[in-house]
Protein 1
Amino acid sequence: MSKNMKRMSFAALLIITALISIFIGRGLESGKVFAIGETFDELKVFAEVLSLVQKNYVEETKTKDLVYGAIKGMLTTLDPHTSFMPPDVYKEMQVDTKGEFGGLGIQIGIKDNQLTVIAPIEGTPADKAGIKAGDKVIKIDNTSTKDMSLIDAVGKLRGQKGTKVTITIVREGVAEPFDVVIAREIIKIQSIKHRTIEGNIGYIRVTQFQEQTGEDLKKALKKLEADKVQSIILDLRNNPGGLLSMAVEVSEQFLETGKLVVFIKDRRGEKDEFISRSTVPVKNYPMVVLVNEGSASASEIVAGALQDWGKAIVVGTQTFGKGSVQTVIPLSDGSGLRLTTARYYTPKGKSIQSTGIAPDIVIKPPVSKTAKDGKKEKPIVIREKDLERHLKNDTIKKEEPEPQIEEEAMPVIGDEKTEKEDIQLQKAIELLKTWKIFKELNPEKKAS
């Protein structure tokens, strides 16, 4: 090896050493323990490649771009929820939890190595443009999405209000790819919607778990209580999740103080329990929780807690199955790392990772659309188990196959205009009415 090459390799090794030191230091500062399991010698190959690229690549390169690219490549070998966020993307992620950002309003994932729509968010530009679950996004503004990370895709889809983005879609049943031009808007996701239905049933829909969701739920419950509701429907359908703290805060508003809501466990088996600390007296409303394949993460925590404690009947279809915890770690240059650090479990110790929450009563919506040939279209449903490199469920024995989840149609979600068409909502209403009838038929009450 030449002296120049040796110098380049040494410089690259210094860069790697500095990055490792920063990474470990940041991990320790945040209370999380991260360890490099391989010996330092195994990083020499990376240092060699970095120095070769810097010296011999046909065009000038930036060390920062090379290192960022290497980090992204490393993380793509892990689960689909672990990712690196450059400073601009990290800043955007922090905005997300506040429930407002500029973009299209779609949830995306990687399926069969392709960028795929999990679901459009109701009422957003993507929803209005007719984007569907299962659509393959093969280009964004004429840039191929092949090998594009989720973080990069999100960065390209988002932007200032009024600007337009062109996405090229491949859709099952459509012969050729087609372009959809969508104008970005400020996506304001109202996390809690509520109303009274059928006279005395409180309907609460949680669309996402954001910083204000817990407080917004308290206000909704107070208003419904003033309306003298006698039962509650909690609708978590198509809710992609959000903040773990808000899942706990929502759950504890229906649980007595001291109840386990969820616990998480890291790879060393260390547990962290989240206990209900509600200071508001809990009303034991008869309750139904609605879920479907779009109910993920924090939604599944809430559904699992209320189901395990017998506080609600869960109705709908099998949930998404995201049972992993992501820790967001700020890095020294303003970038961030979203790292999967643990799995979470329901109070009874069930992991829903890749399997989801099984409803107490399964109600599948009918396939409402018909193809041109008169046959029913096969619905496209995407769950955690369909994503590349998803984690396995560690509570299922190896010899047992993962549960097979049948596909179902996308439901009509219960707003006032479509209430009668929403058969899952109608089933919930029917259950709560029956609940009241049986209560009124109490033989002890009659005897008195």
Protein 2
Amino acid sequence: MDKVLVTNASFAKYSKRAEEILQDYGLEIIRVKQPVTGENDLLGQLDDVVAIITGLEPVTGKVINSAPRLRVIVKHGIGVDNIDLDAAKEKGVIVANSPGTNREAVADLVFGLMLSLARKIPQSDRQVREGKWPKVFGQSVWGKTLGIIGLGVIGKSVAQRAKGFNMKVLAFDKYWDEEFASANGIIRSEVDEILKESDFVTLHVPLMEETRNLIGEKQLSIMKPTAYLINAARGGVVDEDALYKALKEGRIAGAGIDVFSTEPPTQSPLLGLQNVILTPHMGGFTDGALSMTSEFVSQVVVDALKGREIRSRIV
């Protein structure tokens, strides 16, 4: 029987329909024992696998080449930097992702981080639990300037929320959507201008060579000392050593980080700072977003095996 290897625990967590789509096509679902720490956790289970559904787990060239019948790999999310695209292409394996399915969940988290940073909510919670009753002075979010670097599907959802906070929105995107920008009052800006003018900067770009360390020491030096940086995109987009120095020296007010260059970030110096909020790559982890993503990737698997066009195809 043809099998689908599922490497991430979040697939079909809230949606029976996602599994039914695969089973109705006659596929057997094989789940990898969690947690997956490396490629060795996937090897030895690949003989009858025609599809892999993966989250952040490493789908390396060795994994791909050890699956003789593999035809499609689908990312339960957006970024595909954990998949060896060259190996997949060489073997003729389709690689696709699930863009837009977690857009609202990630945008919600961005605003959660923004509000938590501005109003010092985590620190205040800790102090009250310690029996303290401090006067906590924060910053307003209402009416401030938000800079969005990457006005794709998630960036657009963030921008729409900003309207409810009466924020001025500056944005940059390589593929500019003028119709959306005009309809939502978004000002097209270059990255340096966004960094210089914004009270909050949020990143929504994929990780690739041109975006790796997009925000480094030079870019952080442009930001206001009262500004906050939020990264719920990909870890490698920010130079974490440079961010640590900027935060420690008070050159920016704070940061909200959901993604890291190494996950979990057990050795990151950011763990020792109080002016940064760190979350465990949870942007897309809501019941609604996970259900939508799981059903989407299941349908992609079936469509790929049927030879249909895959709009979210990467390779």
Protein 3
Amino acid sequence: MPSASKFFSSTTFLAIVACLLWSSAFAAIKIGLQYTTPLQFAGIRFMLAGLLILPFCGDFSVYLRNVADHCRTVVLVSFFQTTLLYILFYPGLKMLPAAIGAIITGSQPLIIAVIAHFVVRSERMTARRMCSIVLGLAGVVIISLNRGEITLSDGSQLLGLLLLLFSSVSAGVGDIFVSKNRVPIPLLTLTSSQLFLGGLVLFLISIPVEGVHGGSWPAAYYLSLLWLSVLSAASFSIWFKLLKREGVAVSDLNIWKFLIPVSGACLSWVLIPGESPDLSSVTGMVCIALSLLILNIGKKTPGKYSIHP
């Protein structure tokens, strides 16, 4: 039996933790956007997240030197993982019905697997991987059916769909770059600097696009902003750590993101009055559970999917 410390540092456990953190973001985002605009809110969120990681990065002068020495890496990761992703994500989500938005967002593992298949020689699509992705995506679709009809009624919704698809492509490119880039910048330094830079750029873009929004906000706004900053700092730190682990495939790691709609549905049952489990949601969750089981069953590579010190 593996020790508790090995279990809690395993790829499986940490991937689940990161996905559960991300799944809790949706409620906090809805609260925060009642009081401010999307890009400004995202910009402040990610700048704070970057600052929260900063105390764990060691000596500040060394931190600055690492950022300067690896400026290209920081800028590219920040562009794909934060700036471009959220510039595309928020408008796209706003243009689409909830059901379609949930499905496109939930299909990110498939999109990233396709990108990895063509970009990374060691991550060709296999029958096991495809079966896992198809089952997981079917689960996302089934869960999302409860959020409305899956129809596109006009051109703006088609544009929204394309924006969300490209935001997933941006996330995939960022993940692959982090995973395959062997430049020796400390992971916490990379995470902190890319989040802060990406947030700063989003905030600066929000000024001409959305205007400046200030004033006295209620405690709910600050609590949602704080929670989003903390979860961003924690989840990105965990995710980058996993992406850099030897033997961890980007496409397989992203299949764990199918847990996000499952966790989101469970949170809504707990937090939203009148929400309760139903047949379609449970069926979708079973499909996702089977997809993860297919992905992990029988794997023998040390540390890849199970215990990793």
Protein 4
Amino acid sequence: MTQLFDEKGNVTGVTVIEAGPNYVTQVKTVERDGYSAVQLGFGEVKPKKLTRGELGHLGLLKPDDKHPNRRKLEGVPPLMYLEEVRMAEVPYREGDVIKADLFAVGDRVSVTGTMKGRGFAGNIKRHGFHRQRKTHGASDRERAPGSIGAGTTPGHVPKGRRMAGHYGNVRATVTNLKVVMVDPERNLIAVAGSVPGPKGGIVVIKDSHKSGKR
């Protein structure tokens, strides 16, 4: 995260995201696969970091006597991350490159990522509970959850009671973020606000359904 200033001198906290280049590694159709989708690859790596199955999927293995019909993709390098996105109509072909210039300043997007893992956390950190008073003999109970169920009716702890437990390391989506900067040369975009995940985390950016377009 960083800050950007506009022409009037107003400052906005933003998250800078590397939004490309993304390679179209597979196109799925209703006739062949039962649904319409596009698979994107990101993160160029050395071929030795991928398995032969992954290299074959990306069309990076040469045909031989045992496999004369191996898949071929033009212009697709070894890629570490693959993500499939369903679309009503896919306007791309295998081998196309999608860059940051797909976005424009003012667009509204949704960003999905994996939250930071915070391990075992209490009610205050995990759910935002208010701490208790330190008075009347409760000097060591200020961060405890208090009563979790009635003693008589219903006489048990209700299902779904918010308690201490594992916090984070789950998929989360932040919607309706405004794109405030696009740098096509470096494939960077900046969105106002924060996004899920740590620095260097992998995220998926889509048009926000709240913007009125998909």
